[in-house]
DNA sequence: TAGATCGTTGGTGTAAGACAAACCATTGAT
DNA sequence: ATCAATGGTTTGTCTTACACCAACGATCTA
């Protein structure tokens, strides 16, 4: 057997790196988000909701991979702040369709703007172009899996 | 003022995306890591130690952005399993130099191998090449900031 | 010698989040 | 019409990861 090309080295694992970066981002985000009355988990939920353009709660739970009872309390918090809206699905009145309100969308935008400095700092090792690439990859990775959660729950 | 090119759209924020992906990875990793006696935080610490090739504890605390007292307990856990080693710095005998042991390096390698399936699943939306790009970007982002922590603490 | 620094121990408090049980409204199948 | 299954909700318990504080010994530096 002739020796193979460069291939056989162990593939790189992103897990720990992602975790590590997430921590750095989260720590800084907390203080920036606090004045807006948000916590990191709120931001994740709002972001996912925006990207999904609305969702049933069960679908949301699957996407966030959170226990559904905890999703309820998370959404309660967001709803009392008028950031999201629960409407009954006309097709199946047991379902709640969750959507961003205008207030929620605007607050999310403000939050993201406020996070500029944080990301500039944490991603200071990357050029603007590299950051854009990173964003695209992350988006692609998470929307793929979101799509699967979607199919599973028959949602969307 | 003539209108500017494509530029002025709000830049994308990776924070929530990173957080979200980190969660997905962490949830799955826990069950894979458990049989090896590891938790996600252990993996992060081991990974950072490998990438740094050893470090003082204070420097490690800065890199991980963890409270130093919590770093102590984390290292205690790793040390009782013989995964890391604390040696006194000859230059400053107050300092502990922390390094991976052979056992630790091997376990880390085994852990990463065991995580293959997890990453394959979570990153199923990306091609092998894209995953490699992602890894490179993450590595670059986190090593840059690690370098800053290093300078701050006069370490390395 | 005095004061700062590194690591360590022990203790407290908070928040995320998993999990379980019981409930209502609604659906869909028989 | 009945009954099981489903989506959401409430409540309550338990664990874990942390941050934070105070005090200490060893060591370095001035």
UniProtKB/TrEMBL annotation, chains A, B:
InterPro entries: HTH_MarR-typ, MarR/SlyA-like, WH-like_DNA-bd_sf, WH_DNA-bd_sf. PROSITE patterns: HTH_MARR_2. Residues 11-143 form the HTH marR-type domain. Pfam families: MarR_2. This is MarR family winged helix-turn-helix transcriptional regulator. It comes from Amycolatopsis melonis.
């Amino acid at each position: 057997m002739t020796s193979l090309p460069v291939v056989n080295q162990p593939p790189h694992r992103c897990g720990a790196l992602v975790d590590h970066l997430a921590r750095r981002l989260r720590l800084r985000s907390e203080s920036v988000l606090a004045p807006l009355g948000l916590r990191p988990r709120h931001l994740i939920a709002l972001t996912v909701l925006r990207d999904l353009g609305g969702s049933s709660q069960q679908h949301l739970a699957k996407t966030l991979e959170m226990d559904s009872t905890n999703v309820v309390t998370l959404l309660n918090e967001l709803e009392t702040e008028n950031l999201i809206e629960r409407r009954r699905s006309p097709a199946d009145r047991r379902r709640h369709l969750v959507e961003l309100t205008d207030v929620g969308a605007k607050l999310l935008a403000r939050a993201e703007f406020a996070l500029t400095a944080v990301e500039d700092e944490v991603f200071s090792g990357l050029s603007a172009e590299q950051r854009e690439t990173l964003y695209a990859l992350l988006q692609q990775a998470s929307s793929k899996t979101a799509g699967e959660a979607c199919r599973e729950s028959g949602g969307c």
